[in-house]
Amino acid sequence: MGGLALLPALVVALLPGDGPAAADHGVAAGIPDRMAGYSYLTGDVSDSPPGRAVALFQHGWGVEFMDFPQAVAVGAHGDVYRRVDLAEDRAGPETQGDPAPMLLSPEGTRVVVGDHDSDRLDLAVLDLGDGEVTTHALPEGHSAVPVAWSPDGRLVAYLAGATPTNPYSGMPIEGDVGLLDVSSGEVHTLAGATEVSTAAFSPDGSELAVQRSSTAGGTVEVFDLEGGGRRSLDLPAGHQLGGADAWSPDGALLATSRVPFPCLDLVEEARWTACQEEWESIPDVIAFVAATGRPTEVPEPLEGAVAESRRVLGWASPREVLVLSARTDGDGSDPDEFWVNRVSLDDGAIERLSVVPTGGNYGVGRFQLATSLVPDLQVRSAGEPDRGRWPMPLRVALALVAAAAAGLLAPTVARASRRG
């Protein structure tokens, strides 16, 4: 009797998920004015694909009780939230529970996922419209970390490493730049782009700016992907390339930010103290440099809270950037929410677009936007979250509980029917 009760419950739990979340593609892409908080009930992309996403981020750090880090995609056409289970499943022990390295495509329809430690290296591309995954084998190595999409969504620049990488080593991840053509699967290395920590494509996709690691001199070089030439750029002292979306849409500017704390590998106290003092003397701002090497009007740096993210999320126009800022109580505690702000480079005016809650324990990291949607991005009032089907482990657990309850009740029901 218990087995008969268990069977239908498990069938329901294991049924295929729904199709892509409903979306009105006649409506402009939008971002909710407040994103939904952390939830154990958020379903997986593989069970019910969300369609086009406006944002992707990590929610939770795994350092609090019952805090399981999630890779969350936010729908561009409605209040749709899904866990990118591909990124969560590809994570190894080196991530301490965090999702594997992941990157949202400019148009918001795909996510590319790498691996910090693999004997059979590849990059996996997830289609958010139907949940299909395409894997692209890479040359021999042990790590592949995607760092930038080309604006047309055709190329992925990634850092290739001959040895595994560790996001919690305290040092920036570095590697040699590889380029994957996701339409053909063709892969090639970018000659001379070695010991790189981040990269950014030019607006027309013809150039790639790469940030050398500190061990390689910390310089920024711009590679001509069509002609094969390259040039170096001068950055403000103690600054580095400001992420994959550092390049302004008119090609004139590159955003830079203060380097992360560079003193972690110093053991001797005197050297560590001197390094710390030097680092603290560097202004913690988002600064800009001329991307072409030619004379260009460069705006004043962004200071204060808007610079805390240390990189731009995208550009609404050549003179407006989107950044992620943290709100704290000023007592050194973790932020209780983050703000997606649009900032004018002309007068510093700030417009808050969206709030991302942390819920106290559930940190927010690796926040990304679908950059090609940013110029026309609309802000919509947040509604009731569509979280899709509950995650499989939860569905199976509830099915087993229901089956157990049915099994316990079955004898009572049978006796009652016989007496009747």
Features of this protein?
Neuraminidase, 420 residues, disordered N terminus, 4-stranded antiparallel sheet, single chain
Percent range of helical residues: 10-25%
State the end-to-end CA separation.
Answer: 20 Å
SS content category: alpha+beta
Biggest sheet features:
4 strands, antiparallel
Strand content: 25-35%
CATH third-tier fold name = Neuraminidase
Please give the domain count: 1
In DSSP terms, counting alpha (H) and pi (I) runs of 4 or more, how many helices? 4
Work out the number of β strands.
25
Principal-axes shape call: globular
CATH architecture label: 6 Propeller
Order of helices and strands: HEEEEHEEEEEEEEEEEEEEHEEEEEEEH
Low-confidence stretches: 2-7, 9-16
Q: What are the SSEs and their pairings?
A:
Layout lengths: L1 H13 L15 E3 L20 E7 L10 E6 L5 E3 L1 H5 L12 E3 L5 E4 L8 E6 L5 E5 L5 E7 L5 E7 L14 E6 L5 E3 L6 E6 L5 E6 L7 E5 L5 E4 L5 E3 L11 E6 L10 H12 L5 E5 L23 E4 L2 E8 L9 E8 L5 E8 L6 E6 L8 E3 L11 H28 L1
Parallel strand pairs: 1-25
Antiparallel strand pairs: 2-3, 2-24, 3-4, 5-6, 6-7, 7-8, 9-10, 10-11, 11-12, 13-14, 14-15, 15-16, 17-18, 18-19, 20-21, 21-22, 22-23
Helix pairs in contact: 1-4
